[in-house]
Amino acid sequence: MDVLIYLVPFTVIFSLIGLIALIWAIRSKQYDDMKGAAERILFDTEDNNRNDSKDKNHRK
């Protein structure tokens, strides 16, 4: 039971750190565009297609 003297404050401190990090992320608009990053991974941009064609011609 003596270990609870250390565990309870430790848990409260880390919970507060997590809560502060969550509030900071929400206020700095980290969660505004949830679909953007997921869709950006799936589709190539025009720049990537141009670079790929240059690399293929350069290798020949």
How would you portray this structure in words?
With 60 residues, this protein is mainly alpha-helical. The chain has one domain. It contains 3 helices and no strands. It has helices at residues 4-27, 34-42, 46-59.
- Return the string of H and E elements: HHH
What's the rounded overall pLDDT mean?
83
Domain count: the total is: 1
How would you sum up the global shape?
elongated
Termini separation comes to 73 Å
Count the helices. How many? 3
Q: Which stretches of 5+ consecutive residues score pLDDT under 50? A: none
Biggest sheet details: none
Structural class: mainly alpha
- Helix percent band: over 70%
Number of strands: 0
The Rg value, from CA coordinates, equals: 24 Å
Question: What fraction strand?
Answer: under 5%
Q: Oligomeric status of the shown chains?
A: single chain
